[in-house]
Amino acid sequence: MRLDARVSPPDKPPAWHLSPRWRTGLMLCTWLALVLLWQSPVAVPIKVLTVFFHELGHACAAWVTGGVVHAVAVGADGAGLTLTQGGNPAVILNGGYLGSLLGGMLLLRLLKFHGGGQLAAALLGCTLVLISLLFFAQSPLGYGIVLVVAVLMLGLAARSPEGLADWVVRLVGWLCTFYAVIDLFDDVFINTPDVRTDAEALAALTQVPAPLWGASWVAIGAAFTWTNRRWLV
Length: 233
Prior knowledge:
The protein is mostly helical. The chain has one domain (43-231). Helices cover 66% and strands 6% of the residues.
């Protein structure tokens, strides 16, 4: 009896496949470019998306502490507002930045599963649509941008190569995770007239200076990111 030994060909890497080192380098370059262009029109869609997650963090904190969410608004200029009733004010005010951090980490964690890019894009798209339809108010331009991003995410989930969906979701996850660092100077250290920030509201509520709240968000974000650094790549 003759037996033919056959060796299976190596698996072909999927489209858009990059090694963790190249993926990390590309993500860092993209993230740094967005930081440098944060005040330009180029960054408006991603800025609106990260602000949306910030406001969603406030909403989730209100729900968790027994409050009610009446409206969520995001402007094309990066301003956001969540109207709530009841709940714990200190937890709700902290929920914006910390909610962005946890939401970003959740997206990055989903990428560790097979097909996680499409799964995370679908989850993100459905969340954007659901929250927008139920609670969104004011700022038609911001509302429109959020819905366009939602459609793009659902399109990535349905039609794109897994690697492309992975890269886009990873970018969103990174930006949500590092949102406190990006927005800290605008919200805490740059005095913008007629703008009441979360840090200022917490300072009025607790008598702890606003810069200390900002610094605490950065410290928590840095510690949480370092602890879960394996999820970033």
